[in-house]
Amino acid sequence: MIGVKAPTGLKVELAGSRHIARLSDELGPHHHAYFTAQPLVDAAGERVGEVLVAVLEDRIVGAVFVHWGAAEEQVVNDLLPDVPQLYHFEVHEDFRCRGIGTRLLVEAESLLRSRRFKSVLLGVDRSNQRARQLYERLGFVEPHQEGLRGLRVPPGDGGLDHSEPYDILVADLYR
């Protein structure tokens, strides 16, 4: 594993309904609202995503939405078509800097490689320098296309309520 070694006994699993139901207690109600609102299948019935959860001693300590359908942002669809996304990457504040985020990211990338994708993208809030440093250390870079920096989520979109600017970062899945 890259960087900090994850705690012994950490498991990363595809989230089932029992995991999603526990997200409110484990990570907070806004996380539960976000993950329950995400479509895992599209209108044609095709699978377009999975929620992965990090479980330590039967406690959910992190989660991420791995999505290979159309991006939420039209500019991302226009400039990086068919690149899967990682949304709402979260590690419980009591468990940060212990390798859990790295392990979630590695597992998400493995899932995408198994589906034959070549790259992945995510957005990182400009104020979240700790997360940005992690992503860059793990091989994420700013894409060369203009228009993928300083994006904003409309208030209330996707169960979130903030309009902080964020930047898109991209990684090659075979780096």
Task: Please render the helix and strand layout as text.
Blueprint (H helix, E strand, L loop, with lengths): L10 E4 L2 H11 L1 H9 L11 E8 L2 E9 L6 H6 L5 E7 L8 H15 L4 E7 L3 H9 L28 E7 L3
Parallel strand pairs: 4-5
Antiparallel strand pairs: 1-2, 2-3, 3-4, 5-6
Structural class by helix and strand composition: alpha+beta
Strand percentage, roughly? 15-25%
- The largest sheet has its strands arranged as 1-2-3-4-5-6
Mean of the pLDDT scores?
89
**Corresponding CATH architecture:** 3-Layer(aba) Sandwich
Note the overall shape.
globular
What CATH calls the topology is Aminopeptidase
The CATH homologous superfamily corresponds to: Gcn5-related N-acetyltransferase (GNAT)
The parts where pLDDT drops under 50 for at least 5 residues are none
Q: Give the helices and strands as they follow along the chain.
A: EHHEEHEHEHE
CATH class: Alpha Beta
Q: Rg from C-alpha positions?
A: 15 Å
How is the main sheet built?
6 strands, mixed
Provide a count of the helices.
5
Number of domains: 1
- Strand runs, count: 6
What is the distance, rounded to the nearest whole angstrom, between the alpha carbons of the first and last residues? 14 Å
